[in-house]
Amino acid sequence: MNKHTILLAAMLATGFISSHASAAAQPASQGAQDAAARYDSDKKMCADEREASLRMQCLRDAKTVFTKAMESAKATSPANGHAVCATCGKVTSVHVTEQAGKGGALGMVAGGVAGALLGHQVGGGTGRDVATVAGAAGGAYAGNKVEEKMTAKKVWTVAVQYENGHQAKFTFDKDPGMVAGDKVKNSGHSIVRN
């Protein structure tokens, strides 16, 4: 091992480099810039290695140090320097839609019986039998559609933009009382006002 590899190994062992240690006190963009500058410097230092295996190890170590420094830089918000809350965000939109209901056997049977009774009132002989069957089929279809309408419900979809940049959508069966701009946080598999 030469002095370059030993230097990078020492930085890895402590878990900090100068830009990493100061990133918490600086805006994230400044911390990221410092980390990138340090990484460029380390890559140049690694290029001086004579052996390919040592050069590759030096580059891997430099990349690890850079990655840690970037993670630290991202842990602070550029706007006000506070730590980013991964479960906190802001509502970006609320949409209300009507979710179609489901028809079932009850609607089909009730509609079919009603249709058959009405169809039986029409005509006579073979025509009455055809009208009864047609009435039953039409009534079953109509009964299914009526049941779908009766079981339809409103659904509220709330879109959230998290402080860490992620986005998510949550659905509610009742009005959550949220509007765009509300600050929210995760609560179980849902969100609540923050």
TrEMBL record:
Signal sequence coordinates: 1-23
Location within or outside the cell: Membrane
Top-level taxonomic group: Bacteria
InterPro entries linked to this entry: Bact_OM_lipoprot/Surf_antigen (IPR051407), Gly_zipper_2TM_dom (IPR008816)
Domain Glycine zipper 2TM: 107-147
Family annotation (PANTHER family): OUTER MEMBRANE LIPOPROTEIN, PTHR35603
Protein name according to UniProt: Glycine zipper 2TM domain-containing protein
Protein species of origin: Rugamonas apoptosis
